[in-house]
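thought: fold this chain, then report.
action: predict
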Amino acid sequence: MKHTTKFALVVLLGVLALFLEFSFHLHLAAQIIITVVGIFISITMLIEMIKTLRSGKYGVDLLAITAIVATLAVGEYWASIVVLIMLTGGDSLEDYAAHKAGKELQNLLDNSPQKAHVLSDGHLTTKSVEAVQVNDQVVVKPGEVVPVDGIVLSGSSIFDESSLTGESNPVTKSISDDLMSGSINGDGAITMKVTKIAADSQYQTIVKLVKASEAQPAHFVRLADRYAIPFTLISYLIAGIAWYISKDPVRFAEVLVVASPCPLILAAPIALVSGMSSANRNGIIIKNGTTIEKFATAKTIAFDKTGTLTKGILALDQIKSFPPYSTDQLLAIAASAEQQSSHILARSIVNAVDKNILLPVSEIQEVTGMGITAQVDQHHVKIGRKKFVTTETLETPKQTAIYISVDDKFAGYITFSDQIRPEASITITQLNELGIKNTLMISGDQKATANMVGNQIGIAKVYSECLPKDKIAVLKDQENHLRPVVMVGDGVNDAPSLTVADVGIAMGARGSTAASESADIVILKDDLGRVARALSISQYTMKIAKQSVLIGIFICIGLMLIAATGIIPALIGALFQEVVDTVTILWALLAHRDNADLKQLIAQQKNI
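observation:
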């Protein structure tokens, strides 16, 4: 039975017992109803407690069960119903705080390649991807997703592998080059030979990694459970001594009523719910309370590069022109020739110029995998790969570049780079100030590019050229004193890493649904600075939660000592417990407000 159902049942039957007791004076009927409810709840809690103990954990249920049974045994059934309402109400709040959104893989599975065009005896047949065998020849048409892993037999095209490697730059593939399933073909048809069946190909490997990671969730102890053992022992000790001295079993029940662990059960969930509400106001979805606990004590934060620390959009970096052309003239010629192309680099060039300076263009021809030729303002222009444009010996830039010739004379080249997010540097600084000294960048990008980005932002350690399995290895290899480990990413290739990390954070505004579903925290706005905000909120929430729990415990211990003298009847003790609950609840609700550190972070980010 769900906790919310138990709570509703206890409240309903409690109201019924009140009605029978005070309207019809049916004392026995009211006592029987409360006793049956109390025994039923106690049995269900006992079963849950046994399961918890078998899993190697310890909770606060033992003390709660003892309080219910003791009050029923000595006939203090109204005190029992008050305790029952608090216990089941606390469990319901904890369920709400846990807010089990799950980590569904359906979107990842839906986007996986389903069909393949198999070439056999000169005929093209469309088959399900599961029917494709090793050594089959498969045709991948423009715009299609590569269905399985293989090597190129004929043709040449540009492929987008960013969802697999995190590498933002498009990759040109020609004969004998490897192809990974899940990469997206550009504008040229290619024929490939299958090297792995669908189940063993790269995209399905990512799916399996996420599933395997989900099957082994990280163990983390709830906040209340850490105080359960000492609090329970103290409660039993005081109650036992009171019973021994007074020789009255009622005294035992009176002590345990005020010792009921409602502050432990209520305070933490309410603080966590308040913290999640605060995060939601800041464009951050935190999926459960355990995530807040882990994130608040994080020692390491790892970032993907493309789309996370960078914008994930290639933009013009440098324009190198040769006489007689200036940089502005070269850019205008290139943009004019590329204005009808849908290629990612072409769009970046066209978007970088004023449309009013575009020159007349005609006779545009595209050479697959190489570039284009066109007549621009009555000049013959070539744009594309270096060997397509010129035979001159040139120093090759490290970044992605396209080359331009005019009337068969080399005119220059344009380089592109993924732009670092403007808020990236201040975010790393803020994380350092919040106690995160071990910052990592785990990227599928080449070493030179990754190191440049990491150094510019202030990342402590950079890992480059990492596939999804490599990212997982880096996260798992972090030493215990550097845990909990947090991973921040946005692509399909990040989904396994987000799942295997102690806390996974997805940049959900532009990231893949699979990454968002695999993550514990989702940033709803395209703003890396909200990672620091999420950490600040988590730390403040846990501070308030611990304070409210400890306040409740100290008040309860004081009430137990008073109850041990016999001056607090069981029902009055249960009502005192309500006062304790109210105090702890009001304190826990402080987590809903924006704390001073968070306000300072927001102000710093606004000044970027």
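thought: worth noting. Residues 529-563 form the longest helix (35 residues).
final: tokens above.
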